[in-house]
Amino acid sequence: MLNKNVTLSLQGCVRGATMCIPVSPGIIALGLVFGTVAAQKGLTFLETIMINSLVFAGASQFVAMEVYSDPLNYALVVAMIGVTAAVNMRMLLIGASLRPWLGQVPAWQTYPSLFLLTDLNWLLALSEYDKGTRDWGIYLGSGLFTWSVWSLSVVPGYFAGSLVSDPKVYGLDVVLPAFFAALLVPLWKGKRQTVSWLFAGGIAALTWYLVGGYWSIFTGAIAGAFAGAYLDD
Amino acid sequence: MTEGAFTADPIFVLAVLGMTAVTYALRAGGYWVMGRLPITPRVRRGLEALPGAIIVSTILPIVLKGGLAVALCLVVAAAAQVTLRKEYVAVFCAAGAAAALRAAGL
């Protein structure tokens, strides 16, 4: 074993939580926006809290709300679960990359803590590991902190959103696509992304014209992933 | 808000539980599989391309539906993100642009 002595301490947890503070305005703003979107879509307060705190994966919650419509039926439930899986597929990779870090922690501790896995605490934990930190409180503390902030921030957003009668006047209907457009920017690195996105966009647009609905998310995503996989440098 | 704030539609609860289960399976699944299945460079590249492809496929139909005003707002969001690198600022700018465009009658 190359990397022994992985420990867990309260200090590590506190340090992990502290490292999240600079990014917390972003988490809070996003939680507020999700609360607003949920209220606009007509979810009850309890439903909003449930989806936000249990799923705990921002982008997939937003996409699922795009699919959601009232009244809900079983086909839509399957579609909501399907898009959630598609958007969160990256968690397979980030989870896999944590194996060397958390692999020595007892499974009864690791598996519950994986519920808290997000891009943020993954990035923090991995960069700390590279610096030589072996206290996995960094991961746990940052995860717990992020979850708490995320869970609370949805509340004011929900009540503000339910006060607005016409979302279009305040531009609230573009909040969701604008958020996605912003997320796309840091993902662009060069030719590989350009080609992959052109494939994704082309297939998605075609599917949308032919079939409509949300199937374009699946077909476009799969086309883009294949283009990315088979494009050699 | 519909009916009571503290009620939940059973079918919606089902959707939430399904989403929670599938997300947890992905969170824990990659960790579990690692060491058992080697991820080839091709699979890795495909998985890396996935998030961007998902986002493009989600936005494009919204633009096609929403027309010029929505397209302009997304350009504003992307431009704000390029210069400021803050998602929530970009979202705020786009919402502001949308409100202004609607007020102007576009």
UniProtKB/TrEMBL annotation, chain A:
Subcellular location as annotated: Cell membrane
Membrane topology: Multi-pass membrane protein
TM stretches of this protein: 16-37, 49-68, 74-93, 105-124, 136-158, 170-188
Biological processes per GO annotation: L-valine transmembrane transport
Alphabetized PANTHER family for the sequence: INNER MEMBRANE PROTEIN YGAZ
Family designation: Belongs to the AzlC family.
GO cellular component, one term: plasma membrane
UniProt-listed InterPro entries: Brnchd-chn_aa_trnsp_permease
Keywords: Cell membrane, Membrane, Transmembrane, Transmembrane helix, Transport
Principal location: membrane
Protein name: Inner membrane protein YgaZ
Entry annotated with the keyword Protein transport: no
UniProtKB/TrEMBL annotation, chain B:
Keyword set includes Transmembrane helix: yes
Origin: domain of life: Bacteria
Membrane spanning residue stretches: 12-33, 54-82, 88-105
Pfam name, any one: AzlD
UniProt keyword annotations, A-Z: Membrane, Transmembrane, Transmembrane helix
Record protein name field: Putative membrane protein
